[in-house]
């Protein structure tokens, strides 16, 4: 897309709940994406619910219904007929803003209201009259986090005001008077960085009077960002740029039609990546044969690119390609289109929507101008894979979108597959998984921790060799001959569960295992040998096994006794196989057999099969038990007229059931239905009219329901014993990583999971566990230090119970840890504040390197100099430095090589206030002149000088980055009333508040680790610290230190949070309260020394 969309927040998701909850949708075995448009589609935007907005200049019909220029589709491609904004002319750009949509184009009326070229639409498509903007000639837009809209195009005036090709509207639609850049030609693309800076692309050559060839970065106020490196000899691109995309690590992808960018001598073929500072990233050099129009950066860091091109790096690539993070082509992505793709966007479930002028995709004809691709690039079209022989009897969904099938079949999708197969997103047979040749039936499947598969059933051979009942299969489909447990010839294996320790619990109709008598249940070691410590036995066959979070094992089947005690159809075992006598639900009925058991998110136990009641309470074929086995009366009787074979729970708490029933709750629901959390029938899920029994079911990560059984038709559509059922309710995933927490958010009809494991990888291939998540209010959280270290985070959630054997879903997120702000007083560059002192008499500096404990010492300065150590050279290490008040000179000792330089800046009586005011990663020399309340700052980025009047007589300077934009803000503490005042660099606003008294000492720092400085003070009379949280304005206090101690705040443990610390002159001892490491006590220095981390305490 030529403009950037900001996805809605959780608040926006909530605002959509009522719409989705009260809207009826019919699921369908015609599960492919249904979109069809009669003219070119130029733009697509997808909101957090998965709804698909399309816009353009030429189309007049969508899915055969009259719709001109703007339409909304459900996530399955069906037309949302409730959405009718009806613009009276063309649309050029669209952007999601919370639950609303901002649009620009040539219209004068839209959503039932008059709007000149720009409008904000409510979710129902009506015009949001509170947004009063008007513009002509706009084409690109982006919405910032404050709902301000940045618009680009061909215009030169907006609302009677001069605005040359770029304007910003406030949230109410008024023109923002503080933003007025001057661009000399059209703007086609806009992106807004997390810090609020604005990136623009287009056909221009100059911005604000400076050469900027078709690309520029602006500050929040519209001025050119002088910290963004531009080659003065070649300041941009030699061709049009169309779109801009910012990666997680701050690098910038620019798409367009050019062959040079930033250097006339190096080819950049239609795409380039810039480093965050504006220099070209030479490690990224794909060669596109023609123009690229748009890109989208996936959560895993890979880059989707679309456009006009037909080759990449000389190889065939038809208008869409996915690049790895290093710019190489991802050969696992197979998408292609027969004509131009103009735009692409990602759905919350990982699929993608492409739009353009094409009429074929991946060789499929009549895919007209919109298509939906699976994560591997395959077209989301109807799943119609025929299974020959007997049907699938069991299924597992895998995290990569694959599905394992087990049953009595001999062929899947036209390929020979005996007993077991693996199918991909489209349902097609996965040729990378060879025919395992399991001759007979497979009734159960499991995945081991090493990725190998287990298949249990009633087969007699595997891979052409005699191996009966249970086999281990590699991910390539070969049989692992080292795993060969034996069973009695008349037995079979119905159920498999893999414990967390790798041991394998099996159930079925067998009576011996490895020659040892075992009554229908046993436990194997991971090697296949028998675990003799497990002593359970059942008197008839075991159909299902579920493992609880505490390691106890719930079993179901047709048995009447377990371990010699009466247990009809259900029992719970302790981890060693002994009977849990506290658990004794009683199934009622002439025939009573459990076929499925699932542990829900609250620890309750869903049971399904063939029975008429539980503990004397009427419940036909499905019920819910409390964790102790008692009957859960809150789950009503859905009154099924046939057996239930399978249960699958969604995050929303709704429950899919399938089996051999015709009616549920008195209404027709053939073989499959959806229940609410209380067991009542969900009427939104219509009757599928499946014409025969469903034996197997699994819920895939994209919300599709995969089913197998004896049926040959669903919804009147021919399906040969295998089908995918699409249900157009949203599936939402969001993996969030902060400094000390990983959070996995899933919502709506995503599969519910009972256990989540978080893992990390440096290469995206090899993962190591970080720990198990804890469920917190719908999320899964893992709190660990340094959670956001650069690399890949994978969340993997397991369905149904707490074993490692079942279906699972996963999400991968690439995390780029922001370059840490310079840690104060870090002389060795290890990210930790170093203990150090300045000895005034001989003017000696002594510091203890936290990296290795070594203690360098040097002489630099005189006893009357004011120490001012910060990182002036940008190498990540603080430089020894001082300001000489008598002459206004600065002396800086370079940490790189030990050389020094000096220069005058300031005058007698000035207070040194060095800090990084321009955000270039280098400390700027600066002084505060109390005689005229003026700040003088020499910017390291361009050596220009800023002169700012701020403060009053008697104020103390307290510079820090209070607004978190990466630049230090001017600030003062007014001792009399204990007031703080600071000037935000992000927007020029100021803030004032009262906090402290005249005798307190200011100890500003980021104590909470949110990237913003917290106002704070140390009270010398009591040794207390008081900290005002930047997040919410609340404060907290605690004692640390005593009367006479000197406060020395710093990040001593390197966790990104300022630590309270004091130097006690009486004993020359340092006390540090590490926010992660705890208390440290280090003797260092002498009573008359000045501690270096006290340099800027006022």
Brief sketch in words of this structure:
The chain has 1098 residues and is an all-beta fold. The strands form 34 sheets. Strands 34, 35, 36 and 37 form a 4-stranded antiparallel β-sheet that branches. Strands 69-70-74-73 form a 4-stranded antiparallel β-sheet, with no helix packed on it. Strands 72-71-75-76 form a 4-stranded antiparallel β-sheet, with no helix packed on it.
Helical content (DSSP H or I, runs of 4+):
under 10%
Class derived from helix and strand content: mainly beta
Rg computed from alpha carbons, rounded to a whole number of angstroms: 33 Å
The total count of helices amounts to 1
Description:
This protein is mainly beta and 1098 residues long. It contains one helix and 100 strands. Strands 34, 35, 36 and 37 form a four-stranded antiparallel β-sheet that branches. Strands 69-70-74-73 form a four-stranded antiparallel β-sheet, with no helix packed on it. The radius of gyration is 33 Å and the shape is globular.
Strand-helix topology:
Blueprint: H1 10-21, E1 43-46, E2 52-55, E3 61-62, E4 65-66, E5 70-73, E6 91-97, E7 100-105, E8 109-110, E9 113-114, E10 118-121, E11 138-143, E12 149-153, E13 157-158, E14 161-162, E15 166-169, E16 187-192, E17 198-202, E18 206-207, E19 210-211, E20 215-218, E21 241-246, E22 252-256, E23 271-274, E24 292-297, E25 303-307, E26 311-312, E27 315-316, E28 320-323, E29 341-346, E30 352-356, E31 360-361, E32 364-365, E33 370-373, E34 387-397, E35 403-412, E36 415-416, E37 420-423, E38 440-447, E39 453-459, E40 461-462, E41 465-466, E42 470-473, E43 493-498, E44 504-508, E45 512-513, E46 516-517, E47 521-524, E48 542-547, E49 553-557, E50 561-562, E51 565-566, E52 570-573, E53 587-588, E54 593-599, E55 605-610, E56 613-614, E57 617-618, E58 622-625, E59 644-649, E60 655-659, E61 663-664, E62 667-668, E63 672-675, E64 694-699, E65 705-709, E66 713-714, E67 717-718, E68 722-725, E69 731-737, E70 741-748, E71 755-761, E72 768-772, E73 774-776, E74 779-783, E75 791-798, E76 808-815, E77 835-839, E78 844-848, E79 857-859, ...
Antiparallel strand pairs: 1-2, 2-5, 3-4, 6-7, 7-10, 8-9, 11-12, 12-15, 13-14, 16-17, 17-20, 18-19, 21-22, 22-23, 24-25, 25-28, 26-27, 29-30, 30-33, 31-32, 34-35, 35-36, 35-37, 38-39, 39-42, 40-41, 43-44, 44-47, 45-46, 48-49, 49-52, 50-51, 53-56, 54-55, 55-58, 56-57, 59-60, 60-63, 61-62, 64-65, ...
